[in-house]
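Format notes (please read before filing issues)

Several people have asked whether sequences and structure tokens are stored in separate files. They are not. Every record keeps both together, in the order shown below: the sequence lines, then the token lines. Line labels are part of the format and must not be stripped during preprocessing.
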Amino acid sequence: MTDPEARLEELRALVAHHNRLYHELDAPELPDADFDALARELRALEAEFPEYAVPDSPTQDVGGAASPTFSTVTHAVPMTSLDNAMNADELRAWADRVARGLDGQVPTYVAELKIDGLAMSIRYESGELVQAATRGDGRVGEDVTANVRTIGDVPHRLSDPGGGVPDVVEVRGEVYMSTAVFDELNREYEAAGERPLVNPRNAAAGSLRQKDPAATARRRLSFWAYQLGQVEGGPDFTSHRETLDFIGSIGFPVNPEIRTFTSVEEVAAFCLDRQEHRHDLAYEIDGVVVKVDDLAQRELLGYTSRAPRWAIAYKFPPEERTTRLLDIQVSVGRTGRATPFAVLEPVFVGGSTVSMATLHNQDQVAIKDVRPGDTVIVRKAGDVIPEVVGPVVSLRPDGVEPWHFPANCPACGNPFVRPEGEADTRCVAPDCPAQRDQKVAYWASRGAMDIEGLGEQMVEKLTAAGLVRDPADLYALTVEQLVALERVGETSATNLVTEIDRSKQQPLWRLLTALGVRHLGPAASQALASEFHTLDAIREKSVDELAAVDGVGTVIATTVREWLQLEANQDYLERLRAAGLNFGDPEAALAAAEARAAIPQTLEGRAVVVTGAVPGHTRESAAEAIVLRGGTSPGSVSKKTFALVVGDGAGASKLTKAESSGTPIVPAERFDALLDDPDAVLADLTDAADG
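Then the structure lines:
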């Protein structure tokens, strides 16, 4: 590797991007296996080159940010992720680590099927269902209570097992869509001429995030319970099996395919058996979760920064089939990136029929040397996105020629450009219709302006008719113009115009996201909007001022600054302003500036990390209090950390890092004092330690 720092930066961007697509947008581009490989490479390089470590690496993340469509829920007990084992050897290596961590104690293992769905935490108080939340980023999830109430497997009131129902109990598990329901819905969609659902996992995730609970109910979702979260006033447990029995006794479905083993070899055999019979079930699985049964042993093993050491997910390998490659074509995205894809003779693989598969980029096609006419191996890894692995050269017909990347864009005819040192080939023509269509579709997407009814097909109709050149034109559309288009009725036209008009009031962060600035996603857009309150204020800031916002950084700040300074983009923004879009609240910006000016900057230039619960504060309000006093609130401890504030439920890795680096550790009860006089608090702690 000639430049490990550059590779680390590239991997972090890729992992963060695909994390967001998977967890926040329910629109993954990569198979699970490909994403796992990127994440594993990133972790390995970070371990090998610690001098290039950064505090906001996506390897520290669990899931993705909660969608602003729903109100947020802070989990009383964090919902962690799981580390993966890709084969029996990695499973044995995990078992060896467990044995060393238990210092001679012999564990019993519980093996559970890894349901391919969406993690959920359901909270009951005095036996009544009061809240249901997605995992989100592990600490903050989305409140989807109304939608979860429509799931038949989820009791609205808990059964009394005889010993009384706990005052508070959180039951965690997986929301999923059965294969029978998935197939039935797709038959209905196809009969209606609508786009079918991609796979059961995405269908379940999308169903849970419907704004209308009735729409969720029509998807007929199911639930398997597998874990307890917060419990107050309940019975004492010594093993995971006891918790599962208790969960079943209070009215939840617990998967029957759960087994207990005393050796890792028995676990490995069970995993291989389940892998072979994965399609015998009425639901999709993508592996087996293996846990240490004894709860005291779990406490001894503890957690890493993102996952328990006492559990691991054994991931099934991607499924592969062979089929004939009919053609290789190139699609052009909103940034001009040209992506080759395979047109295949339809083949059933990974639980669905596949007729197209990605070839990633020009280099990958050349490296794999796949050619139209070849018999190729198709992989649908993780039951998400299919890809062409390579050709079966022995079956290649005579006379099949190598495929060459086209010199010109198929959409506009202009020459493709491949910048030196980059893997991607791009169309840089400003008037490319493919880029235009993709930019408008992205503007309307759920993660941006969230305009229902404005999918790719409708966008293509609008641009082909000359009604829309860019998203600003959307706001001049009339019902009369829309009904003149092919197969657009008055009701659909009226609804679309209403949706477009509604989007004018979307918050500033959605507008920032929808602009499609390179590297600027929803998280950084929210950070900028929260900090500066108006687009005009953001436009006035320097790169350094933008980069200083937590969650932004130099790369994003640079692209945002450059985009906003282009004259063509300024004209475009003025058209959006004239259309009545929400550019932010100037009064809020002024009030924030005045409030900040009145607050002593006691933490100016200092980084304070908060872990665990802080009395009187949420995670967000604690971070805001630090920032208002001139400090920063990063997510992890580094050599530059001024202090680590520690409360109940603190992350073990942050404590360990702080102790090893000599970072002062402040009890959460003294957080408010730290805000007022940080030097005095640290002096008190030093005196107490010396005493």
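For reference, the curators noted about this record: The chain has 26 helices and 21 strands. Residues 4-23 form the longest helix (20 residues).
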